[in-house]
Design brief:
4 domains, globular, DNA binding, five-stranded mixed beta sheet, Znf_CHC2, DNA replication, DNA-directed RNA polymerase, zinc
């Protein structure tokens, strides 16, 4: 338990610095004496989320959510009051004294909390194995140092190593009282009848953090060259980890994303590490998965500006750009950077360093439409049919942009690039929008189930016993003479 005096101190500190708390999650802009931003609790294009430093509260006039800094953390991170108080205590350097939870208390924690405890334990285990065992130092640490990563970066991201032994983590975790049920549910252990094994054995470990910095999953890279073994392996989907909703490095990047008003999106774990080592920290990775709407909206909480950085693999680029239309559809300002052939963000960041890399990005990033046109134009080979298909593809991309002014700018640019008159492009966009509207109109509306009242029973009176000649008439609704 936390004593009430400590809770009061933390609440007072959070109330006086609520803007500081919420700005870690939302890109806030001053509006008079208050601050305004896009609400993190529902999708909106026009900001309606207000933070009042004077009153120490927040309020969204779109979805209605509001409260103080503690309420915000509880709602945003889906955590308990105690967890929110602990988080704010760490932020404001207020020491919290509490008793260690008893085994009985741990046993009664819900499934989600138990899984979070297990992943936190595993992260510490992997980090200790990396630095404190012979195998970890020679294999795991040797790999990271061979890749050129400094110790401060290794510790910043809590990198680790899972030993080659089949069930080392599983056995030790169970010895320390962690249940196999939660080791299995978090994906740390594979359990089949009497067989138990560590999922990530023989791999270097990249912990995946939530927005609040809690470890919710892991990525592991195998160090042996085995064609039958996947190079990278991620935790499976679970109660605490949904890969489509999180980005690697978001916890370490979120504050700088707000300060720089820009996010750099790369593909892999080591790309993020190398950018951080170079001194560029507003960078996140999709971890090899196709970009999702949830991931885009996660970035949009901190800044609407994103630069997507690709290495020089043409096939990979063409596969990726199909999903980037989603970024434009969410109203983001997108730029794209194609690195020189043979380079990836990891190697390029190590080669150039911070200043030269930032200058290279500024000099070579381009808007998404121009980039997509230049990439796909190579496949047309002056074929008029393919060129027409390319124009239609570009027009479809432009049509999803919600802002009419931005859309008009892109139409003008496309007109110049493809040598097509603007009215033609506007006509095509009109057709696309009309088809979309017609399709949506034909889609059956989802109606709530109609709960019909049960048929009312009508009581038919019996003939009057005192006079058999009198009967009940349904037509007249009264007794009549027969």
């Amino acid at each position: 338990m936390i004593d009430s005096a400590t809770v009061d101190r933390i609440m007072e500190a959070a109330q006086g610095q609520i803007t500081d708390v919420i700005s870690e999650y939302v890109n806030l802009k001053r509006r008079g004496i208050n601050y305004i931003g896009n609400c993190p609790f529902h999708n909106e294009k026009t900001p309606s989320f207000i933070v009042s430093p004077h009153k120490g509260i927040f309020k969204c006039f779109g979805c209605g959510k509001g409260g103080n800094a503690v309420n915000f953390l509880m709602e945003h991170e889906q955590i308990t009051f105690v967890e929110a108080i602990k988080s704010l205590g760490r932020k404001f350097h207020i020491h919290i004294e509490e008793r260690e939870p008893s085994p009985e208390a741990l046993q009664h924690q819900n499934e989600r909390e138990s899984m979070m405890v297990v992943t936190e334990y595993a992260a510490k285990y992997f980090a200790q194995t990396l630095y404190e065992t012979d195998e970890g130092q020679s294999v795991g640490l040797g790999y990271f140092r061979q890749r050129g990563f400094r110790d401060d970066i290794i510790k910043k991201f809590q990198l680790g190593y899972s030993p080659e032994q089949r069930d080392a983590l599983t056995r030790q975790a169970q010895q320390h009282g962690y249940k196999i049920e939660f080791l299995e549910k978090t994906g740390l252990s594979i359990v089949r009848d009497d067989y138990k094994a560590d999922r990530f054995r023989g791999r270097v470990i990249f912990p995946i953090h939530s927005l609040s910095g809690k470890v919710i999953a892991f990525g592991g890279r195998v160090l042996k060259s085995d064609a039958k073994t996947a190079k990278y392996l991620n935790s499976p989907e679970s109660e605490i980890y949904h890969k489509s909703r999180i980005l690697y490095g978001i916890y370490q990047a979120r504050q700088e994303m707000v300060r720089q008003d820009r996010t750099y999106l790369v593909e892999g774990y080591t790309d993020v590490l190398s950018f951080h080592q170079a001194g560029i920290t507003n960078v996140v990775a999709s971890s090899g998965t196709a970009l999702t709407v949830d991931q885009i909206r996660l970035m949009a909480r901190f800044t609407p500006n994103i630069t997507i950085i690709y290495d020089g693999d043409p096939a990979g680029i063409k596969a990726s750009i199909r999903g980037i239309d989603l970024v434009l559809e969410e109203g983001m300002n997108v730029k794209v950077l194609l690195l020189p052939e043979g380079e990836d963000p990891d190697s390029f960041a190590k080669k150039l360093g911070k200043e030269k890399l930032l200058q290279y990005i500024r000099d070579n990033e381009t808007d998404f439409i121009k980039f997509k046109t230049s990439i796909l134009l190579e496949d047309t080979h002056n074929d008029p049919i393919k060129r027409a298909q390319l124009i239609q593809d570009i027009v479809r991309t432009i049509s999803v942009i919600p802002d009419s002014i931005v859309r008009a700018v892109y139409i003008k640019e496309c007109s110049k690039l493809m040598n097509v008159e603007e009215p033609v492009l506007y006509t095509e966009i009109g057709k696309i929008k009309k088809k979309k509207q017609e399709k949506e109109a034909l889609r059956p509306a989802v109606r709530p189930p109609v709960h019909e009242a049960p048929p009312r029973r009508i009581r038919i009176p019996r003939p009057c016993p005192s006079s058999p000649a009198i009967r009940w008439s349904r037509k007249n609704g009264k007794y009549c003479a027969s």
